[in-house]
Write a structure and sequence with these properties.
Layout: E1 11-16, E2 19-24, H1 35-49, E3 56-61, E4 66-68, H2 73-82, H3 86-102, E5 108-112, E6 115-117, H4 119-124, E7 129-133, E8 137-139, H5 153-156, H6 164-171, E9 174-175, H7 177-183, E10 188-190, H8 195-203, H9 211-222, H10 231-242, H11 248-256, H12 264-274, H13 279-292, H14 297-314, H15 317-326, H16 344-351, H17 356-361
Parallel strand pairs: 2-3, 3-5, 4-6, 5-7, 6-8, 7-10
Antiparallel strand pairs: 1-2, 8-9
């Protein structure tokens, strides 16, 4: 048996001009993360962190469609069905990698083109510089498969302006580049056609100033600003009003009553989206983001793991993956089937026993 050719490995690594380049290389699978990819990324980052010859890291992906469309959901489904613990290991190591990027000692430039969803968001939100192209589509769509925003989503979504994070988490909608910049989920936008020029500039940097300053100056010189009017900016008054309600049932009721011409169509479209999501997942998501506002980063990851350890047996993810990915009948039977049937005590039970102080003192696993 021959080794996999270097160009076909799921993660490619290279060093050029004192920059470590990490490239996700599963374009046919929209660069969805596997456990092996997570371990390769973490291991290479750890090696470069200790190498004085490496000044910075660039994280990007191959393919025209996606930077990373999430995690390998089918693997997680199969693991739980088989009765093993591989899905638990996946989450522990994925969150450890994401946390490591948030705290990485050298500047990380995340370069995103195409879809950046779920696990892809976890990789980039801790980066020093989050650079998108006009083709970027970002989101945390977990409620659509009966899950909740993880990979640090309880931290970075809960800290977006106003109720934008609640809106994005509870509905699971995707946003474009203009909205990503407005919401604070990206720092700069360059055009897709400028990617080659960015690489040329990276290869020619002189490092006469601090690496982070050098990267910021370079990216700023290429950035095009917001590529279009941000829809979220226009919708912000309605989003902040409706998604500030204390539970998802009240959010839905408020949206149903929206009659202002500027917001009525959006409210009706949002209701239609929510009515296709898992009621339980939406309610747990709203509670998760509400709690996340008061927790630091390690505690947010720990709370997400706390939910993970219960969710496959007690939440809606197995049914969501069955309906949307395995059998593809696109007819998930959520439990319960409607928002009105979601019991507040059941939502609260997922969070029972979690102690933030203990979470802060517990080290995340390392690669």
């Amino acid at each position: 048996m021959t080794d996999t050719p270097a160009t076909e490995r799921p993660v490619l690594s290279a060093v050029r001009n004192r920059i470590g380049h990490l490239t996700l290389n599963r374009p046919a699978g929209l660069n969805a993360l596997t456990l092996d990819m997570i371990r390769q990324l973490h291991g290479q980052l750890a090696e470069w962190a200790e190498d004085p010859a490496i000044h910075a890291v660039v994280l990007r992906a191959n393919g025209e469609k996606a930077f990373c469309a999430g995690g390998d959901i089918r693997f997680l489904y199969d693991s739980f069905k088989a009765g093993d613990t591989a899905h638990e290991t996946f989450f522990e190591e994925e969150y450890a990698l994401d946390h490591y990027i948030h705290t990485y000692p050298k500047p990380v430039l995340a370069l995103m083109d195409g879809f950046v969803l779920g696990g892809g968001m976890g990789l980039v939100q801790g980066a020093t510089l989050r650079v998108i192209t006009e083709r970027a589509r970002m989101g945390m769509p977990e409620v659509g498969i009966g899950y909740f925003p993880d990979v640090g989503g309880s931290y970075f979504l809960s800290r977006l302006p106003g109720e934008l994070g609640t809106y994005l988490g509870v509905t699971g909608v995707h946003i474009d580049a203009a909205d990503a910049l407005y919401a604070g989920l990206a720092d700069h936008c360059i055009t897709h056609d400028q990617l080659t020029e960015l690489d040329r500039c990276l290869d020619g940097m002189s490092w006469s100033v601090h690496p982070e300053e050098a990267l910021r100056t370079l990216v700023s010189s290429l950035a095009v600003g917001r590529p279009a009017t941000a829809e979220l900016e226009a919708l912000r008054p309605a989003i902040d009003a409706h998604f500030a309600h204390a539970d998802v049932q009240a959010i839905r009721a408020a949206l149903a009553e929206e009659q202002r011409p500027a917001y009525r169509d959006w409210a009706q479209a949002t209701l239609k989206v929510m009515d296709g999501r898992s009621p339980l997942a939406m309610c747990v998501t709203r509670e998760l983001l509400h709690r996340g506002r008061l927790l630091d980063l390690p505690a947010c990851f720990a709370l997400e793991l706390h939910l993970d350890r219960q969710w496959f047996a007690q939440g809606d993810i197995m049914e969501g993956v069955r309906a949307l990915i395995v059998h593809k009948d696109k007819n998930p039977h959520w439990n319960p089937p409607s928002l009105d049937a979601v019991d507040a005590d059941r939502v609260a039970a997922f969070f029972a026993g979690f102690k933030p102080a203990a979470a802060r003192s517990r080290r995340l696993v390392t690669a």
